[in-house]
Design goal:
Largest sheet: 6 strands, parallel
Order of helices and strands: EHEHEEHEHHHEHEHEHEHEEHH
CATH architecture of the largest domain: 3-Layer(aba) Sandwich
Number of domains: 2
CATH topology of the largest domain: Rossmann fold
Helix content: 25-40%
Number of helices: 12
Strand content: 5-15%
CATH superfamily of the largest domain: NAD(P)-binding Rossmann-like Domain
C-alpha cells in the first residue's frame, strides 16, 4: 500500500463511526470524522462534492454510508473505500475495480436492529398498541360507551405460525426471536437450505407473513393481490425490508376487505407516504419511517466490520468482506 508523504494514511469518514471500530481506525490512520447524520440540515455529498472534500483533506481512505462514490472520486489515488452498508449500492464497484481500489462492505450490520423492529411492529399491530395509546391520550378510554377489553381483544402470538420470506441475516435474527415468543417459524428462501416451504405453502399456512428478502428483479412485486388472497383470514403482514416487494394497492384492498387482520410497515416507495393515504387512517396498521436499522449498535457493528477489514488489507491479508477481491489478485500479480 502506498503511504502519503508523512508516512501515515489519512481517512475521511463521513459515516457514523463508533466503538471498537473507531479506535481501530484511529490506530491505522489519521481520521477526519465528519458524519453526515450529525449535520442539520442533512448533508449528503454527490460524487463531485465528495471528491473535492477528499482532496481538501489529502485523504487516501474514504469511509461512507450514504455519499455517492462514483466518477471523480474514483480518479483519486485511494488506498481503500469503505461502504458501511450490506449492499454498497452507493459505490460504482466496477469502476473502483478497474482503478484497482478495494471496496469494503458491512454485511449484517443491522440484522438485530431490523429484527427487533419487526417484533415491535408485530406486537403493535396484534395488540393495537397505537390505537390504545391514542384513546388514552384523547381521554377516550371508554370510547363510544365501550370498555378497552371490548375494543382491544386479540389472539396471543404464542402458538401461532410466522412465515418469513427471506432467511438471510435479518431473517435468521427474526426467526430466533419469534421462536422465543413461542411461535412456530417457517420460511421461504430458494437460496437457503434451512427454508423448506414454497411461497404458496407459506402464505397458506402462516398467521404472520414477514418480509426479509432483498430487492432483486425476482423479488420486486412478489407479493400482490394473488399472494394476499392466499394468506389466511386475519393474517398480519409485516414488511421491514423494502416496499418494492409488495403491491401497496393490493395490500390496501386486502385490509379494507377484512381479509387481512393488520399490517406493520417500515418502508414506502420513495420512503414517503402521503398523510391522506388509506393506510394512514387504518387503526390496524402501524407505520414507521424506515427506522429498522436506526440504532447505535448498527453503527458500532459496521464500524468494527470496516475497520477490521481495513486492518487486514493494510497488513497484506485478505479482507473478509471485500466486494472486489480481484483487485487483490491483480496487486499480488504486479508485486510478483
Amino acid at each position: 500500500m502506498t503511504l502519503r508523504d508523512d508516512g501515515r494514511h489519512k481517512a475521511l469518514v463521513t459515516a457514523p463511526f463508533r466503538g471498537e471500530g473507531l479506535e481501530t481506525l484511529q490506530e491505522l490512520a489519521e481520521v477526519v470524522y465528519d458524519p453526515w447524520i450529525e449535520q442539520e440540515p442533512i448533508r449528503l455529498y454527490n460524487s463531485e462534492q465528495l471528491a473535492e472534500r477528499i482532496q481538501a483533506e489529502d485523504a487516501d481512505i474514504v469511509i461512507v454510508e450514504s455519499d455517492s462514490v462514483k466518477g471523480p472520486v474514483l480518479e483519486l489515488p485511494l488506498v481503500a473505500i469503505g461502504s458501511c452498508r450490506g449492499d454498497p449500492n452507493n459505490v460504482d464497484i466496477p469502476a473502483a475495480t478497474q482503478r484497482g481500489i478495494p471496496v469494503l462492505r458491512a454485511p449484517g450490520r443491522n440484522a438485530d436492529a431490523v429484527a427487533e423492529l419487526t417484533v415491535a411492529l408485530l406486537f403493535a399491530v396484534n395488540r393495537r398498541v397505537v390505537a390504545a395509546d391514542r384513546d388514552v391520550r384523547e381521554g377516550q378510554t371508554y370510547r363510544d360507551g365501550t370498555i378497552p377489553y371490548q375494543r382491544f381483544r386479540a389472539w396471543e402470538l404464542s402458538g401461532q405460525t410466522a412465515g418469513l420470506i427471506g432467511l438471510g441475516a435479518v431473517g435468521r435474527a427474526t426467526k430466533w426471536r419469534l421462536e422465543g415468543l413461542g411461535m412456530r417459524v417457517i420460511a421461504y428462501d430458494p437460496y437457503s437450505p434451512d427454508a423448506t416451504h414454497s411461497l404458496d405453502d407459506l402464505l397458506a399456512e402462516a398467521d404472520v407473513v414477514s418480509m426479509h428478502a432483498i430487492v432483486t428483479p425476482e423479488t420486486e412485486g412478489m407479493i400482490g393481490a394473488e399472494q394476499f388472497a392466499r394468506m389466511k383470514d386475519g393474517a398480519v403482514f409485516v414488511n421491514t425490508a423494502r416496499a418494492m416487494m409488495h403491491d401497496t394497492d393490493a395490500l390496501v384492498a386486502a385490509l379494507q376487505s377484512g381479509h387481512l387482520g393488520g399490517a406493520g410497515l417500515d418502508h414506502f416507495i420513495g420512503e414517503f407516504i402521503a398523510p391522506d393515504h388509506p393506510l394512514c387512517s387504518m387503526s390496524n396498521v402501524v407505520l414507521t419511517p424506515h427506522i429498522g436499522g436506526a440504532t447505535y449498535d448498527t453503527e458500532a457493528n459496521h464500524s468494527r466490520l470496516i475497520a477490521d477489514d481495513l486492518r487486514r488489507l493494510l497488513d497484506g491479508e485478505r479482507p473478509q468482506h471485500i466486494c472486489n477481491p480481484e483487485v487483490l489478485e491483480r496487486a499480488t500479480t504486479r508485486g510478483a
